[in-house]
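quick one, 126 residues, struct below
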Amino acid sequence: MQHFRKGSYRSELSQLPYLIRNSSVVIAELTRGCRTQEERHVIEELANQTLLVTPTEKVWRESGKLLSRLSEKKGYSPEKIKDLHFDCLIALSARSVGAVVITLNRDDFEEIRKLKDFKLICWEDS
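---
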């Protein structure tokens, strides 16, 4: 997320062949981690320049079921399940509108995708 706060992937985002949407969950996560006015500005700009996809009630309920299955299947700790909750919300929200999730967090999103398919592109951390 540090990369987005600093605007590191602006060029890559502008070159995508997709209509760019963002997740309100991602914006909240990014904003939560802002430490400077410059970082806040980049995130506000990102939020204001893209349409936001927000988890519905159905997505919230589905995320709980999915996390329960992940916990059972992988034996994840309660802390890990808590950490995965936002990722589940992002994945399921994107799935609900046919969007592609683009992330640097390959491992967690691949685990989620094993239980609920969604479109995923994983960028490498630079």
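The beta strands are 21-23, 51-53, 100-103, 119-122.
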